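Lab channel / #folding
Pinned by the channel admin:
"Please post every new chain as: sequence first, then the structure tokens as a reply. Keep commentary short and put observations after the output so the thread stays searchable."

First post following the new format, from NK:
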Amino acid sequence: MILLFRRFIAIALVTSSAVAVSAAPASAAGRKFEIKDSNSWSNLHGSISSSRTSATVSGTLVADSTRVTAWGCVSASISGCSLVANQKKLAEYDTRRQGLYAKDFTKTLSKTSGQSVYVRACFTWTQGHGACSGWK
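Reply from TO:
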């Protein structure tokens, strides 16, 4: 009877451990990024964590008398980010009339296995012209 009870406990522990492992994200790998504007203190920095089916981009827009727009791209390769259909606006912050401010954001994007998520920032200055970074 005691042997049967021990076997039951052992099976219960193995089963509960297997359930806990399978409930965890498959690959919660994260990577950090930082994109700076060479003409001001403005920047975009944060991290991307992803699983097989989604990616979460968390970051901070720092705007110094600038409009900063954060863009995300879901694609199998970085070259696929040139397609507008793969680009998604993550956040935007306009301080062209205010000075230096920061704004946090979090955005989750859907993806499939084999796809990656890339980010870039576009900076527009008070004069109306601007520039975008490359995809990171």
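NK: Residues 7 and 13 are 10 Å apart (CA to CA).
TO: also worth noting, The radius of gyration is 22 Å.
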